[in-house]
């Protein structure tokens, strides 16, 4: 076989792999919309023969509500951007076999760090913006490393730790706002950050900002890290088979901590850019901001591929952005959550099927051996 034929075979193999990877997520999206249309028919009084009319109404309303004008399209970017960050953050942990449900707390602390650092007066934007970004990375990274360390050194389940740390992060934010000089107690919020700390916005009438560019660069960088570096190979190897990895000389504990550190840092970066580019301050939290939890769904739909998190985030961000317009058009905004839930259920089913296939394969290998 010559080099040309070998390259063609590799190219065809890559296309087949990509098509196989996309098949189930696309099927999940198709089923979610198929189910959602019935609720649209019920809400708007469509007859059973008007299914496709209801489908057109649903999809048209979502597209119009999210991309009907330039200002709406730019506003939709503010929903998409944080989901790329939290989706990529979750994907890194998943690749190492860790379920980082703590991206919510890591994102929240990234926002808090940016809110505090953003108040420093007298700095040049050239210094202040990188300082904001760095603060989010450090805050999220350290918060993510805690459950990673506890799992690596003591075998404590990371899911339980992450859930508790999410609540601790929320109450840390509330404490800083209500009990320290960094917050305005009477307004239950932090002051607006300095102009030198704000990210560049694409339009004066929109909140869309360069955070989306940072998010895409982050996704590309993480893809390169996971698939083109030795450290990335080790992370993926631990996620696929930790025992075989350990036998091959890979330090499981070190890679577990590193994966959670990177995952948390990305989520914290997302929180910092969201604050510096979109909201400019943070308020007393009565519940989670939600981007971290949605990011898990983004990563699941993307099959833990950092690049795949971009279109996945676009889907979820578009749905979230259109919820208000759906309500105005007599379509319950809960349709958005229904679509997202069905997608998650089907994607989770795919993971379960893969798990039992792998288990059956290992059992067969043992019997044959």
TrEMBL record:
<feature type="transmembrane region" description="Helical">
    <location>
        <begin position="158"/>
        <end position="177"/>
    </location>
</feature>
<keyword id="KW-0472">Membrane</keyword>
<feature type="transmembrane region" description="Helical">
    <location>
        <begin position="257"/>
        <end position="277"/>
    </location>
</feature>
<protein>
    <submittedName>
        <fullName>Nucleoside ABC transporter membrane protein</fullName>
    </submittedName>
</protein>
<feature type="transmembrane region" description="Helical">
    <location>
        <begin position="335"/>
        <end position="353"/>
    </location>
</feature>
<dbReference type="GO" id="GO:0022857">
    <property type="term" value="F:transmembrane transporter activity"/>
</dbReference>
<keyword id="KW-0812">Transmembrane</keyword>
<feature type="transmembrane region" description="Helical">
    <location>
        <begin position="21"/>
        <end position="42"/>
    </location>
</feature>
<feature type="transmembrane region" description="Helical">
    <location>
        <begin position="79"/>
        <end position="102"/>
    </location>
</feature>
<feature type="transmembrane region" description="Helical">
    <location>
        <begin position="208"/>
        <end position="227"/>
    </location>
</feature>
<dbReference type="GO" id="GO:0005886">
    <property type="term" value="C:plasma membrane"/>
</dbReference>
<dbReference type="Pfam" id="PF02653">
    <property type="entry name" value="BPD_transp_2"/>
</dbReference>
<keyword id="KW-1133">Transmembrane helix</keyword>
<feature type="transmembrane region" description="Helical">
    <location>
        <begin position="122"/>
        <end position="146"/>
    </location>
</feature>
<keyword id="KW-1003">Cell membrane</keyword>
<dbReference type="InterPro" id="IPR001851">
    <property type="entry name" value="ABC_transp_permease"/>
</dbReference>
